[in-house]
Specification:
With 610 residues, the chain is mostly beta strands. Helix content is 5%, strand content 40%.
Length: 610
């Protein structure tokens, strides 16, 4: 049981009473927030700072910050750039340590206890076997057992060994694949109960739970569970590529014990409550963490009473999961926004001012480690978002102001930083979004001087920075590298009608080694009508060249997609003028983009070291 042990210091100055609360990991962070709330309510202090000492603060439910917590500051033990590497950091964790590992037939095996009175499931595992890991505290994400090799001797991308689909039967909801992909000399998953397929589809990947495998000679008919089966075979975009395209879609299999065949892989037997891990040579696990929460911190305000003026500084957010793919599958439309219903339209819909629409879709949104709803001026400074199974930081709806600065986003399954609506659940995603109450729109956020790398490492169709229907966002001096798809995505809607987006800025960012798994992408990508938006002085270079993409030529440095209107794109350095303007609206200005841009501009892009 955690002890409620606070050290409270009061400081009085100019009739302002400030209080500092000091806590340690064996204290309750939730209780400290409540204590600060009560101090302000009772007039004992007008400003309260909670100081976290180094260590891990394990949560059993999300920390909830409400309008009554406005004015709060939460500070970690150090905000120096190398604090995390030195272990001098406070970690807010949604994980549960796993111990009592036993050797069994070359594997390490541990019992998975109940969490908070219930059995748990999870999609990630982090182990701390070595001191050489670049991640916080030496933790490293283990690989969920899969059909693709963990590594190849020549150091190339192991996913280039993914098999390809044979045919795609939309009418009967059957995907045909080679028999050798599921039954070969290395493994057979014909009798696996919870196996999943990850299917590569142009600019997204789908997670599909396998319902049955039916062998027909050298081919196998794969059927999937619902709801994802219905969505997968009815939605037209993005679609898997079939052999007649010349680039049939690749796939891999996961979550079957039979696939546990290489060091570094793991499997969770949910029925037996057993966790299996295949260690590397001479490896012993010092510590292992499984995630039990999807969200660590929730800011919960309303349009009438937002949460205001909260700063979190020098804190690490770690160890979350996102369980929808295990429960309902995951079929995204774009940027990880998953379809709840989608189908082709015949006849197509006429849209004045836009081309005809051939499909409809409605969306949901993945969980993030930190989520904000109706919050004003909530800031994150010198924080780390790391070891996360959903997205990192998400300004979901109704947020005004707030800066994320000098922070690091790494080892994240989905998007790094997310801001604004990507169509409300009740709004068909191609319709213009212009809410009656403009307080819904996220405005005037800043994300600057941050680094994003090894994000989108499970859902390959996600991006480092995803900004949807936003106004006045400022994305500047960030460094983005080693991501699966696009670096920065700005806008939403596939529509040139005037909506709530305007005055956005993407300035002096450095983006490289992007598109490591998906094409139809760009370093910087836009959608929709965004008056007075400026994309300037960015550097985009060094795109990856995965061998299995649907079209090896369909990649770009800068990409203004459907409906992009009234955007100025100028002074951006790229190695060549490989740009795309697809179905754009009016008012776009392209000026001085390419290799001729001044070297001084080029040298100033990216995160500024402090």
């Amino acid at each position: 049981m955690r002890r409620l042990s606070f050290l409270i210091i009061f400081l009085c100055c100019l009739n302002m009473q400030a209080a500092d609360i000091y806590i340690t990991p064996d204290s309750s962070l939730t209780d400290a927030v409540r204590k600060a709330r009560e101090m302000r309510r009772l007039g004992q202090a007008t400003e309260v700072t909670i100081h976290l000492s180094a260590g891990t603060y394990y949560l059993y439910e999300p920390l909830r910050l409400r309008p009554e917590d406005s004015g709060l500051t939460i500070v970690g033990p150090s905000t120096t750039p190398n604090a995390s590497a030195l272990g001098n950091t406070a970690v807010i964790s949604g994980g549960m340590p796993i111990s009592n590992w036993q050797q069994q037939d070359g594997l390490l095996v541990a019992d998975v206890p109940d969490f908070n009175g219930r059995p748990i499931d999870f999609r990630q595992l982090w182990v701390s076997p070595r001191q050489t890991s670049p991640h916080q505290g030496g933790f490293e994400k283990a690989i969920r057992a899969r059909s693709v090799p963990v590594s190849i001797a020549d150091g190339s991308d192991p996913f280039k060994q993914m098999p390809r689909i044979l045919t795609y039967d939309k009418k009967n909801h059957i995907l045909w694949i080679p028999k050798s992909a599921i039954d070969n000399s290395q493994f057979s998953i014909l009798n696996s109960q919870y196996a999943e397929m990850v299917l590569h589809e142009m600019w997204c990947t789908s997670n599909l739970r396998i319902a049955s495998l039916s062998v027909h000679g050298d081919s196998v008919a794969v059927r999937f569970h619902n709801p994802e089966a219905k969505i997968q075979f009815e939605h037209p975009w993005p679609s898997p590529m079939t052999p007649n395209t010349g680039h049939p879609s690749p796939f891999y299999l996961t979550n079957a014990k039979e696939l546990l065949d290489e060091p570094g892989e793991w499997y969770h037997d949910i029925r037996e409550h057993k966790l299996y891990y295949m260690p590397r040579q001479n490896e012993t696990i010092r510590e292992a963490i499984v995630p039990v929460l999807e969200t660590l911190v929730e800011f919960i305000g309303s349009a009438e009473r937002p949460v205001r003026n909260i700063t979190i500084k020098g804190v690490t957010f770690s160890h979350t999961t996102w369980m929808r793919p295990s429960e309902k599958g995951h079929v995204p439309l774009q940027a990880g926004m998953y379809l709840t219903e989608a189908y082709k339209l015949r006849p197509q819909i006429d849209r004045p001012n836009n081309h005809k629409l051939d499909n409809q879709g409605w969306l949901g949104r993945a969980a993030a480690a930190v989520e904000l709803r109706y919050a004003e001026d909530v800031n994150f400074e010198s924080c780390r978002f790391e070891h996360l199974g959903g997205s990192g930081l998400d300004y979901v709806v109704g947020c005004c102001g707030g800066a994320t600065t000098n922070s690091t986003f790494t080892d994240i399954a989905m998007n790094g930083y997310v801001c604004g609506s990507f169509s409300p659940e009740g709004l068909e995603t191609h319709l213009p979004y212009q809410p009656a109450d403009m307080r819904e729109v996220c405005t005037e956020q800043t994300v600057s001087n941050c680094e994003f790398y090894d994000v989108t490492n499970e859902d390959w169709g996600c991006v480092a920075i995803a900004a949807g229907y936003v106004s006045g966002i400022n994305i500047e001096h960030n460094t983005i590298h080693d991501v699966s798809y696009t670096g920065i995505s700005l806008g939403w809607g596939w529509n040139r009608d005037l909506v709530c987006m305007k005055d956005n800025k993407v300035h002096a960012n450095l983006i490289y080694n992007y598109a490591q798994h998906m094409y139809d992408c760009a370093g910087i990508y836009t959608l929709g009508n965004q008056p007075s938006t400026v994309i300037s002085e960015n550097v985009v270079k060094d795109i990856a060249t995965p061998s299995y993409v649907h079209d090896p030529n369909h990649w770009f440095y800068l990409y203004t997609d459907e409906g992009s209107s009234n955007i100025t794109i100028k002074d951006n350095w790229t190695p060549s003028e490989k740009f795309l303007q697809n179905a754009n609206g009016p008012g776009n200005v392209w000026e001085n983009n390419g290799p001729q841009v001044n070297n001084e501009i080029k040298s100033k892009a990216g995160r500024i070291e402090k």
